[in-house]
Amino acid sequence: MSTTEPTVTPTVTPTAADAGTPASQHFRASRTVADPTDSASAERVSDLVRAVRDAVHQVIRDKQVTYPEFRATKQWLMDVGETGEWPLVMDVFFEYVIEDVAARAQRGTLGTIQGPFYVPDQRRLPSPVTLPARPDEKGDPLLFSGQVTDLDGNPVAGAELDVWHADDQGYYSGFAPDIPDGNLRALIVADTDGRFEITTIRPAPYQIPTDGPTGELLRAAGWHAWRPAHLHLLVQAPGYRRITTQLYFTGGDWLHSDVAGATKPELLIDPQPGEDGRLHTNYDFVLEPVTNVPGGAHG
User: Fold this and answer.
1) Most buried one in 115, 133, 135, 295, CB count within 10 A?
2) Which runs of consecutive H residues, i.e. helices, occur in the chain?
């Protein structure tokens, strides 16, 4: 991980304790037994577990891992479990590769990682809309608009955009104290032409929690813990594959050294000042029909 970009310290930083347990709880809540991708045959499980085990064995042999290093790793894994940081570890170090593999068989708007800060079952609001926020919410006002279409450019009426992002200090509601539940989160319903218009604030870049075992590992490896500023979105409609993605800001810090490795040039937005005092930006989403998607509509 590069450490050459500016080291800006946020006013407040979410802690491992604030983020770990709710991340695990929300992940369990967001899973659905109806998702056909949640099941696997015994043969598939055996194949995957054997491959992971053999790969770890090979690393131990190739790197001549010592007993003190093995015991330190064992302790670290125990600490991750006790702090509830497994969602953070999996999302930071592995999810981007899972998404990259999935993207090979997908069409439409590019996806990227969901990350550990998703909270399901947010308020359902029609577009145009202002995201729920505190009365004194700090940050540059941002107007984010666009259209949801199918692969042929036809509008997808009533498409849903589940939107969430950090505030201007890097906090997410649900994972930090003193922020109301649902702050800067909502499920937005596009109009009959698939168009949406969302007023919010421009989020800040932030460090993932560094006071727990994940941060300990990053420090030991000499890696930074920063993510560039971004908007999270789940874009979906009946009959289409759901897109899980993030939009990043042109020229933002950490774009080229994201600790989660999730940025893509196709997912950049470039807000410009408008006459109304808000930053304005547009991004259109293209959904792929389920008939083109092996295994169902989940992205």
Assistant:
1) 115
2) 16-30, 42-63, 67-83, 86-93, 95-103, 213-221
The bridge status of strand 285-287 relative to strand 141-150 is parallel
The DSSP bridge pattern shows strands 206-207 and 226-227 to be: antiparallel
The two three-digit tokens of residue 161, written as one number: 């955009």
Per DSSP, the three-state class of 148 is strand
Cα 293 to Cα 35, 108, 126, distances in angstroms:
14, 11, 28
Query: What predicted TM-score, i.e. pTM, was given to this entire model?
Result: 0.83
Which residues contact residue 126 at a Cβ distance below 8 angstroms, ignoring those fewer than 6 apart?
Answer: 188, 189, 191
- 56 Cα distance to chain centroid: 27
In this structure, the dihedral spanned by the alpha carbons of residues 175, 177, 181 and 182, taken in order and rounded to 10 degrees, is: -60
> Among the residues of 199-257, which ranges form H helices?
213-221
- d(Cα 186, Cα 199) in Å, to the nearest integer? 11
Quick one: 156 exposed, middle or buried, by C-beta within 10 A (0-12, 13-18, 19+)?
buried
Report how far residue 191's alpha carbon sits from residue 157's, in angstroms, rounded to the nearest whole number: 6
Please name the amino acid found at residue 103: A
The whole-number pLDDT of residue 14 equals 55
